[in-house]
Structure formats: structure tokens, C-alpha cells
Design goal:
The protein is an all-alpha fold and about 375 residues long. It is built from 14 helices and two strands, in the order αααααααααββααααα. About 5% of the residues have low confidence.
């Protein structure tokens, strides 16, 4: 029993989850927000959960709208995989000795994404049944749209990386052959070797066919060979994120077209996909200094807002906002001083003449219109 528990604990999927919590915890913040949103614990009074669970496209909740959200979540998961693959490369050197290392990494890194997908489907179905009063057929249609968009997103991403793997193998076929021969000679001489510093202990991992495999020891491979493989995959991954960013910008340029107005939940998720890549880049280049630097940037931007160096307020053209002269007070007493009975009477007669002119142009009796002026206390 102890042997099986140790095998489970030192499996690649479990060790990856622990690695995410040990390092670069800021990346988990995006998952926390998404989990809290679909669970109704984040901005529920503002309808954040409905944006994800009942997305609208062209004014309707349909299979097309859920497909957009499914596609966006697939893109977010791939961005998560790409970012963490780059950040954790030095801990998973054995993947460089396998075919399609990024695919194997995605399979073993699927613990958190799978939990999120199951949670999303559970909350989405419950929301449609309780809040939207949808029928079983309608719910199945929406779930089908979501899964269709999600699968399409993964198919595009993995199709791109499959092509990248083939190009890398063609360019490095001689290096792969030489490295394999060296590994076979070394493995016959040395059966047991210690784990190198910086690497994780991995007893087994899931292959591309979901079979269990033991990782190769990388001690007999040159560091230059391992780095060259990871470097080529990193370049391909960065290109994929850059293409996604360009696609998001292009969608934004055509937002005036109603067909380009994708559901808000999909837009937010795609924005998170870009943010997680940016956060990963900051973590990669800044290392342990990423949190202090981000905090310093936040304080600097906040100070610039206070000094009005960054001023996002809407301004009326023709008014001078740089003057330090005291502005007129805006309160009940100041407004009362600007009013007098003659102005009120004149204003009332003017609007009565407008209504009389409108009445003359009406050729049939209109129903009585009631206006209620209500003041709400907060």
C-alpha cells in the first residue's frame, strides 16, 4: 500500500500541482477568480456569474454564445499551459527526451483545468435549470455548443504545436539520434543515478496515449541539447500567445459590427489568457523580485493618478481643468440661489408650448401617460 501511495504522490500530475502552489502563486490568482465567478462568490450582485454561465450573443443565450465561452476557456487553458511550461522547464528536463513534450506536459498538467471544466458544467447546468428555467433539450444544446467551442480551441492549438514538433524534429534529427545512442550506452553502464539539483522526483507520468511511463534520466544528455529543445518550444509558444493577442486586438477593432461583439464572459476569459502570459513573462524575467516590482508599479501608478498625471475622467471641451481657482460649489443651496420664480415660470411656459405643438400633430387620441418621480435612499 505504501508503494502505491508513494507512486501516486510522486506522479507527474500530482507533483505539478504542488509545483504550482510552491512557485509563481500569482498565476493561480486567475484560477481563483474564475472558480469564484462561476460559483457565485465573486461580483455576483453585478451579474458576473451570469456572464459566464448564461452568455449572450446577438441578444440571445444560444449554442453559439456558449461556443464562444468554450473557445475562450480553451484558449485560457492553453495560455496557462504555455506559460507554466516555460516557467517550469528546468524542473521537467526529462520531457525534452520524449516526442511531443508540450502535449505530454498538457496532459499531465490537466488536473486544475479538468476540475474547473467539471465545476463549470455543473454550475452552468444548475443555472440554466434554476435561473433560466431551460428545458433539458435546451440545456443539452448549450452544453454541446460549449464543448464544441472548447474542442475547436484545443484542436487549433495542438494542431499548431504538432506542426512545430515535426519542424523541430526535422531540424534536430541528427542531434536526437546522437543523444539516443549516448543514452543507451550510458544506461547500460549506470542503472541508478540521483536526481539533479532543481529537478523534481518523478516516478511516472502519463504518455500521449494516457499510459503510464517512467521518465528517462537526463544526466547523460548534454545541457546544450536539452536547452535547445526547450528553447525551440518556448519560441513556438511565445508565437502562439502573440498570434492570440493579435486576434484579440482585431476583434476589438471591429466591435461596432454586431457579429464581432462576442459574449462578455468570453472577452474577460481571453483577457485573462493574455494577462496570465504577461504575468508569466514578468515572473520569468524578474524571478523572486516579481511581487515587489509589481507592488512598486502599482504604487507608482496610484501616485500618478493622485497627481492627475493619469486622468481618465471625461472632460467637457472648452473648460480649463488646469486652473487652481476654487470651483463653484455644487449643492442644494448653490442651485437654489441660481433659481427664481420668474425663470421657473418662463421655463414652464416654454415646455408647455412644446407639448402643445406636439399635441397639434397627433391625429388620434393617446392614452394617459403617468410620470413618477422617485428618490431612492441608499
Amino acid at each position: 500500500m505504501k508503494k502505491y501511495l508513494a507512486g501516486f504522490f510522486y506522479s507527474f500530475p500530482v507533483q505539478l500541482v504542488f509545483l504550482h502552489f510552491r512557485r509563481y502563486q500569482v498565476l493561480l490568482l486567475f484560477w481563483v477568480i474564475l472558480f469564484a465567478t462561476i460559483g457565485g462568490q465573486f461580483l455576483k450582485p453585478y451579474g458576473a456569474d451570469s456572464l459566464m454561465l448564461a452568455p449572450e450573443y446577438l441578444g440571445h443565450v444560444s449554442a453559439a454564445s456558449t461556443a464562444f465561452v468554450g473557445f475562450a476557456i480553451g484558449a485560457y487553458i492553453m495560455s496557462w499551459n504555455i506559460t507554466t511550461f516555460i516557467l517550469h522547464s528546468r524542473h521537467i528536463k526529462f520531457l525534452a527526451t520524449t516526442a511531443q513534450p508540450f502535449l505530454k506536459y498538457c496532459i499531465n498538467n490537466a488536473v486544475i483545468p479538468v476540475i474547473f471544466l467539471l465545476s463549470y458544467l455543473f454550475f452552468a447546468i444548475s443555472y440554466q435549470r434554476v435561473e433560466e428555467l431551460s428545458s433539458s433539450v435546451e440545456i443539452l444544446t448549450l452544453v454541446g455548443g460549449f464543448l464544441g467551442g472548447f474542442i475547436l480551441s484545443l484542436a487549433i492549438a495542438f494542431g499548431y504545436f504538432f506542426g512545430t514538433d515535426k519542424k523541430i524534429y526535422r531540424k534536430m534529427v541528427t542531434d536526437f539520434t546522437t543523444a539516443k545512442e549516448k543514452y543507451e550506452r550510458a544506461s547500460r553502464m549506470i542503472k541508478n543515478s540521483k536526481i539533479e539539483k532543481g529537478e523534481m522526483r518523478i516516478d511516472w507520468f502519463l504518455s500521449a496515449t494516457f499510459g503510464l511511463r517512467k521518465p528517462r534520466n537526463t544526466k547523460h544528455y548534454s545541457q546544450q541539447f536539452l536547452n535547445s529543445i526547450f528553447k525551440r518550444h518556448h519560441v513556438a509558444a511565445v508565437k502562439a500567445v502573440f498570434i492570440a493577442l493579435i486576434a484579440l486586438v482585431l476583434i476589438g477593432l471591429f466591435t461596432e459590427n454586431r457579429y464581432c461583439q462576442i459574449p462578455a464572459g468570453a472577452s474577460i476569459t481571453l483577457f485573462f489568457a493574455i494577462l496570465i502570459a504577461v504575468a508569466g513573462a514578468l515572473s520569468l524575467f524578474l524571478g523572486n523580485w516579481s511581487v515587489p516590482v509589481v507592488l512598486a508599479i502599482y504604487l507608482l501608478v496610484n501616485w500618478m493618478y493622485q497627481q492627475h498625471w493619469i486622468d481618465p475622467r471625461n472632460k467637457a471641451y472648452g473648460l480649463d481643468y488646469t486652473s487652481n481657482k476654487p470651483r463653484p460649489e455644487y449643492n442644494k443651496e448653490a442651485l437654489s440661489d441660481l433659481m427664481n420664480k420668474s425663470d421657473v415660470a418662463k421655463d414652464s411656459l416654454e415646455f408647455i408650448s412644446i407639448l402643445n405643438n406636439w399635441k397639434v400633430r397627433q391625429h388620434e387620441q393617446k392614452p394617459v401617460l403617468f410620470f413618477f418621480g422617485c428618490k431612492r435612499r441608499w
